[in-house]
Structure formats: C-alpha cells, structure tokens
Specification:
Order of helices and strands: EEEHEHHEEEHHEHHEEHE
Number of strands: 11
CATH topology of the largest domain: Ribosomal Protein S5, domain 2
Strand content: 25-35%
Number of helices: 8
Length: 282
C-alpha cells in the first residue's frame, strides 16, 4: 500500500520570548499557522527502511527526523515493518518554516494509520516532543497558540486565508546559535487562553511580532532590508518566521501579491520566492 501525504510549512504570526529556563531552553509563546507551501512524502512498505530525497543537502540517515521517528516506533512500540520513503522537498531547510518538524509529524501520522499502531494524540505528541520544539504543532491542521518550548499546544484558532509572499535568502540560521547569542527581545508571559479564537485581518496584522528578529538581523542585515522591501512593495505586514531566515509579507489581494512578487524577484534575484496563502481554517 503506497500513500502520499503533504507536509506543510509553518510561519509564526508572533513569537514572544519569555525568558531562559533552567534546562537551557527558552520559554516562548507563539501563534503557529500553516501555509500552502508543502513537501510531499510518499511511503511504501519495503524489505528495508530507506529514505531518499530530491535535495542532496538533506540528510537521509538517523539525523533526519523522519528516521528518528521510525527508530522510536521500532524500539518502543514494536513496529517491525520497514518502509521506502521518498521525500520531495520544497520547504527551504533552516528557513524557520519547520520543514523537518512537519515531515516528522506527517510521517508519524501516516505510519500510525498504515500500520494500525493505534497511537493516540498524546502518544504521538510525546514522541514528537522528544525530537523537536515545534513538531507537536504539526499534528494539527489549523493555526494554534502554543507555549513552553513550542510543544505545549494551548488552543486552535482560525485566521483569514490571506495571500503570503514567502522569501528565503538561502541563508541557514542555526536556531541554537540565535537563542544562545543574546540580543533577544523578552516579553512578559501572557494568558494565551484569553487570545481570540477567530482572528480578523486587522487583528492578524496587529499580532505580528518576533522577539528573535533583532538578533538575527544583527547577524544578517540583508533580512532587515528584505523586510523593509516587502513593506514598500505593498505588504500590509511583514515578519521573519521563527529563527529565520525566511521573511514573509501579508497582502490583502492576489493582485498585490503578484505585483510584490515581481518586485522582490527583481531586487533579490538570488533569493527563493514562493507565492502562498495562510491555511487559516484547517
């Protein structure tokens, strides 16, 4: 039985850093939203587990989160089946859009169904929480408020399905380096249970904030230039996603999006540009 699943990229509508924890991680609060940009994972039963990918730079050994999930399922849950896994990447690696985390969660959900493992949401969340901070979010198909390291999902939400321009400068930004380097904007912890569950367009724009931008822009000034250019191109709001390096612009209409796309591609010819949308309601 062969199945093919879409593995969607995320952006952070806001990312607030609350402070450093005793375990070395940072407490944060965020609103995750998936975009229409996606990878495709094709899975088939095989004599041995093998991962292949169309992007040579993506590891296909145990450092890939898909293989880490498979190893956990084999060692802890007795999964004996093996799989041929084809990963067709479109989401830029190290771009702050959670590509690897999304891949891991989508693979886990698919194998749980294919192999009748009977894993509950809590079982899958426990597995994903071990291997990443934003991985648990991808068990959901809607925007979500989250806190902790990002693995504690507070509630789902609905956002307007607005046009997005996703621009990746092909710069890999190591998350640990940014969190460990200082210059983070700290925000007092809020009560996410009081946040709106249905967010309108103006509310969405007012939420845009990322406590990591200053630290990343200091290391990579071109990202500040990119954000400014997005706003000058007609974006109603722009923000770096996660720890970067992708910066996105939000537009009210597809016509504005297309016009901005032409401007960005002309000014930043070496950058990777995607026209997309927020998957606002699942």
């Amino acid at each position: 039985m062969v199945i093919s699943v879409r593995s969607y990229a995320k952006i952070n509508i806001f990312l607030h850093i609350n402070g450093k924890r005793s375990d070395g991680y940072h407490d944060l609060q965020t609103l995750f939203a998936q975009t229409e940009l996606h990878d495709t994972i094709t899975i088939d039963e095989a004599d041995r587990t093998e991962l292949v990918c169309n992007v040579p730079e993506i590891p296909v050994d145990s450092s890939n989160l898909i293989i880490r999930v498979k190893d956990i399922l084999s060692s802890r849950y007795g999964l004996k089946k093996k799989y041929s896994i084809n990963l067709e990447k479109n989401i830029p690696s190290g771009g702050g859009m959670g590509g690897g985390s999304s891949n891991a969660a989508c693979f886990l959900k698919a194998v749980n169904n294919m192999s009748d493992l009977g894993l509950s949401y809590c079982d899958m969340a426990e597995i994903l929480g071990e291997i990443g901070s934003d991985t648990v979010y991808f068990l959901h198909n809607k925007p979500c408020y989250a806190e902790g390291r990002g693995e504690v999902i507070v509630s789902e939400a609905e956002l307007p399905s607005v046009p997005l321009l996703l621009v990746n400068p092909n710069i890999h930004v190591p998350t640990g380096e940014i969190f460990g380097g200082g210059n983070l904007k700290l925000t007092a912890k809020a009560d996410l249970t009081r946040m709106p569950l249905v967010v309108g367009y103006e509310e969405l724009l007012a939420m845009l904030d990322n406590g990591l931008e200053a630290a990343v822009f200091a290391k990579h000034p071109v990202l500040q230039i990119l954000k400014t250019t997005l706003l000058d191109s007609g974006a109603d709001g722009a923000l770096m996603s996660g720890s970067g390096s992708t910066v996105f612009g939000i537009y009210r209409t597809d016509e504005q999006l297309s016009s901005a796309c032409s401007i960005i591609k002309e000014k930043f010819a070496d950058f990777t540009v995607f026209k997309s949308r927020i998957k606002g309601a699942g």
